Amino acid sequence: MLEAADSLFEEFKNKKEIVSAINTLQLSARTVTRRIEVIAENLEAELANDMENCIFFSLQMDESTDGTNISQLAICVKMVFSDFTTKEEFLKVLPLKGSTKGEDIFSTFKKYITDVKLPVQKLSSITTDRAPAMTEIIDKLIEKFSSRFEDLAALEPVLRFFINPFNVTEDDVLEIVSVYFELHNIEDLELEIINLQSDIILKAHSNDKMFWNLVDENKYPILRKCALKIYSYCATTYNCESLFSNMKYLKLKYRTKLNDSHLDNCLKTGNSKYILNYKKLAENMDTQVSH
């Protein structure tokens, strides 16, 4: 609330007094709940927009038990955009109230991505904590979608190529890239690799962190798209693990009335990296009240 006040009363001469007065306010539990719901809805809309606009995204999943002994599946997302910028966000926490076997976790995950219409055609990879049940999810995804969820260790030559395409021969990566990225015209890929490795201007920028953003999309469409997919990968479940640390404070043994929706909303508001427009939120709430 105080953070919102900084935005709402930024141009007020008596801002300090207003913020001080707000600091003494005591809101009812129902009011606090509704405010968190509104903020979470706004964050969900921001994330949905980014998911729509990103080129690829990867998911990180981990499972843990909360303070009331309910297993929770945390899902975080890493998105990559056309300019090679990336964003990492908390996506969802799903309660696993039955069995926590791999097949049951997969069913819960599958229902979620179906309900929210997650654009799975952009999904590049999934990282888990490698527990047996979570590994089974990867097996199910390979069975349902394609080989694109296979172990990234097999892609080491490809990853080395995209880190520095001038230190790897085309023979090392050609077949792997064509199979993994489901390419049908290997000749076009081969020509792009040859042309890129012969480009002295690009070679001069080979150590630039944003090298692939310098690569012409019209001249190297296949390689650029493959690079975007590589950029979307995430090798750890650190974000999920951090989320569970926060969850333990939110849902304690003595705070059992926090339902699934409220837990998800609290985690969104507490872990999102999006910067909220509190002024716009307040204006929207005023409009709703007036009606």
UniProtKB/TrEMBL annotation:
Residues 211-266 form the HAT C-terminal dimerisation domain. It comes from the Eukaryota. Transmembrane segments: none annotated. One of its GO terms (molecular function) is protein dimerization activity. This is HAT C-terminal dimerisation domain-containing protein. It comes from Trichonephila clavata (Joro spider).
